[in-house]
Amino acid sequence: MAINLYLAQKYAGPMHCADPGVLGLAAQWSFWAMLEMEALLLDLLQHRAVLPEFARDASYAERDELLLGKPLEVFNNTLAERDHMAGGQFTVADLNVASILVWGKMGRLNLSPYPKVARWLDSCLARPAYGRVRDRTRHK
């Protein structure tokens, strides 16, 4: 997160946050996602997709999904007021949060109770840059 925030500020480009308020929101949401969701999403992904079948424990994934309810509710409510995490366009905050939340999609996290989160994540993943990264990793 810190590296992405640094690079976004160092190099002028679409991720740069010229307004200090937007940069503050970008940092807030980036670190919020790390602290509130990252470990749970990683554990969910492990027990639904990454670990070999014999090592997976469905109760861990169910627990993770239950505990993700509160931060996903907060996030869903926030997205009721805006389309992006910080400022009026896609920023490094959206990049950082989506890079964590995509683990939930890979781990079959049920986002139906959080339609604004699901819509936001789908829009982030529909960006051409994400498609290029996804295509490169599939060909390795």
What would your notes on this structure say?
Helices cover 70% and strands 0% of the residues. The protein has one domain (2-138): Glutathione S-transferase Yfyf (Class Pi), Chain A, domain 2. The longest helix has 31 residues, at 20-50. It contains 7 helices and no strands.
Radius of gyration: 16 Å
Structural class: mainly alpha
- Unreliable segments of 5+ consecutive residues: none
Strand residue percentage: under 5%
H/I helix tally: 7
Based on the coordinates given, report the CATH architecture: Up-down Bundle
Number of domains: 1
- Strand segment count: 0
The backbone outline, from C-alpha atoms, is globular
| Name of the top-level CATH class | Mainly Alpha
CATH topology: Glutathione S-transferase Yfyf (Class Pi), Chain A, domain 2
Order of helices and strands: HHHHHHH
Short description:
With about 140 residues, the protein is mainly alpha-helical.
What features would you highlight for this structure?
0% strand; 140 residues; Glutathione S-transferase Yfyf (Class Pi), Chain A, domain 2; mainly alpha; 70% helix
Detail the topology: elements first, then pairings.
Elements: H1 2-10, H2 20-50, H3 58-67, H4 69-79, H5 92-106, H6 115-125, H7 128-138
